[in-house]
Amino acid sequence: MNFCVPQLLNVIQKLRNESYSMIRRQREITHEVSTIRLNNQYAKDTALDCKKKQAAYDDHLLEKEAKEEYLSVMLERDALCCICLSGYEENDILGVCIISIKYV
Question: Which top-rank group of organisms is this from (predicted)?
Answer without folding.
Answer: Eukaryota
